Amino acid sequence: MVENMIKLKEINTVNSALWAAYGDALGFITELADSRMVSKRTGAVTVVELVEWKRKIGGTYGPSVSMPVGTYSDDTQLRLATSRSINCDGYFSINAFSKIELPIWSAYALGAGIGSKIAASSLAKKNVAWYNNFYQGKSLYIHSGGNGAVIRIQPHVWACRTPENPESFLSDIIKNSLTTHGHPRAIAGAVFHALSLAYTMTMNRVPNINDAKVFNQWTREIPRIIRQEINLSTAWVPTFEGQFGKSLEEAYEDVHYEISELIDSVSNWNNSKDKSYKSLVDILDLKNVQIRGSGTLTAIAATAAASIEEDLTTLLVSIVNVLGTDTDSIATMVGAIRGIVDDSVPPQDVQDQLYIINDAQRLYRISINNESNNYKYPDIMHWKVASSTLDYVVNCEGQLVFPPFGVVIEQSEPFSSNNTESYNYCYQWVSSSIGQSFLVKKRNREAIKSVEMHQSISVVQPKAKEKKTIPQLEIDLSVNKGAQDLTEQTNQRILDIDSLTADAIAGNFDPKMIGLHLIDISHSDLGVNGAVAYSAIISKAISARQKRTKKQYQ
Fold first, then answer.
1. How much is the CA Rg of the chain, to the nearest whole Å?
2. Which of 52, 200, 376, 378 has a CB 3.0–4.6 Å from the CB of 460, allowing a cystine?
3. β-strand partners of 425
């Protein structure tokens, strides 16, 4: 019985990943397009299957690039980046994700929102960490409430060993989201979608309205989870509250109310005679450019759409042909949810199909504690992003390399326009040894830079572990239990720093002890972020003691 449940979980995880990628690839064709643009891209007025199509890249003067059949967008790209950052023990390396994966992603991103791209570029700076990425410019971090985080968090649920317990995955999802998005809508949307996905995996059915109301209770728990993370509580929260103008709790209470209203609208739709996707678009106002792409709106729309009793392929075709909506993001989230309970696989392969399957299988093995492979990233302290996006792809000993993905093979002819040719660069499809394809911007062959060595991701095999299986349990989404029951892994990471700082304070801030603590933390998985958090706590404690001493002598 248990073996059958475990096998079913593997199938469900793979199908969820494949349908998510399929929905993304299908919706990418119609993303932000009107009927004239769809016709120009594909030669047809509607999209009913994956086809080869063309898209202008690099602005007004950029070239028109051929998109192979099944090309996916930033939604799937960022999911794969998140997956690689989860190691075989289920630990999410926020450092690798924020300082390596995201900055390099900006060099190959397809269809990304402006906020996500600015956030990724900002993280390339040495003085910016995942918990202080308060970027400004065309988009402000604290105003960034789009679904750029929502669409990438599924791997945390797929890899989770106890998806019935939200506390075991929500902390990582919130950290992942806050790396690029600061507005509570983005974080609450990611949490809502994660809960929908986890519920579907555990209960093997799509959530209903009452379930959605329970999910929204967790919106009020987000501030608590944020404050439990040492980097966020000491460095992120004060800056957020100062810039946002409200306390963390007030900000998320507003979003809780906003989600409640959206759920009420879905309830009215659910009770209506016309329970079609087009009527859902109308009732949620998904075409409204002022709110289109909102993290909360699209997460709730996806959960509602997943409940429509239609063949999944038919449903996704309906979603991607409602032009003026966020077609790819909604389709990819619906695919992730419905793919769990759907017995079929998508009717066509997507780009990098085998890699997506292998990635999903790896996450499944992590979820049953039976994975032995990790992605080993370059040393973050010595990792450098090229100063120019034209130099991300370079020549090393006669081979094209795209750090950190290593040697890449050209898969298409170069794409250029009069403008790109005058600046001696082009766009080109390349494939990597790990199995993922990239459309890269690079210098023409005669102008490409040469390097003597490069840093690459490698696959390592820690010592073999005993195979363990964990049967699925009935989901418990009650926030009361969750508020008292943190996962052992998260608790351990917090207690380590707490005990070290307590020792340092009790030791009257002995410099030698503090120095040894910093070295130990720097060599641990907490790394630079842990060292900064430790330093911040010690600094505050010293300041507080000085103030108390000063008062005693006044």
1. 24
2. 376
3. 443
Residue 481 lies in a domain: no
Which phi and psi (to 5°) does residue 247 adopt? Answer: -70, 160
Task: Report the run of H or E that residue 320 belongs to, with start and end.
Answer: helix 312-320
What the block records as the tokens of 465 is 């572990």
CATH number, domain containing residue 257: 1.10.4080.10
Total number of residues shown for the chain: 554
Average pLDDT across the chain, whole number: 89
Of all residues in the chain, what percent are helix, strand and coil, respectively (each to 5)?
55, 10, 35
SS3 category, 477: coil
382 in a structural domain:
no
Alpha-carbon dihedral 177, 180, 182, 184, rounded to 10 degrees: -30
d(CA 369, CA 392): 36
3-state secondary structure 93-150: CHHHHHHHHHHHHCCCCCCCCHHHHHHHHHHCCCCCCHHHCCCCCCCCHHHCCECCCH
376 forms beta bridges with: 458
Residue 452's alpha-carbon distances to 396, 399, 425, in angstroms, are 6, 11, 22
Distances (CA, A) of 33 to 29, 42, 51, 70, 355: 8, 12, 16, 18, 29
Range of the domain at 500: 487-552
Residues 323-326: contacts with CB within 8 Å, 24+ apart? 323/30, 323/33, 323/34, 323/35, 323/38, 324/34, 324/287, 324/292, 325/281, 325/286, 325/287, 325/292, 326/31, 326/147, 326/286, 326/292, 326/293, 326/298
- Domain shared by 257 and 294, yes or no: yes
Closest CA to 497 of 477, 517, 479: 517
Handedness of CA 59, 65, 69, 74 (dihedral sign): negative
Kindly state the DSSP code that residue 92 receives in the 8-state scheme.
Answer: B
Note whether 171 and 278 are same-domain residues.
Answer: yes
For residues 121-137, give the mean pLDDT. 93
Identity at 465, one-letter amino acid code: K
Residues 6+ apart with CB under 8 A from 365: 88, 371
Residue 474 in domain: no
377-426, pLDDT tens digit by residue? Answer: 998 888 888 888 899 999 999 999 999 999 999 999 999 988 777 788 99
3-state secondary structure of 438: strand
393 and 506 belong to one structural domain: no
Residue 481, pLDDT above cutoff 70: no
Q: Which H or E run contains 543?
A: helix 527-552
Q: Do 147 and 112 meet the contact criterion of CB atoms below 8 Å apart?
A: no
Cα atoms in the Cβ-side hemisphere of radius 13 Å centred on 428: 21
Q: Provide the sign of the torsion angle of the four alpha carbons 473, 477, 480, 482, taken in this order.
A: positive
The Cα–Cα gap between 408 and 398 comes to: 12
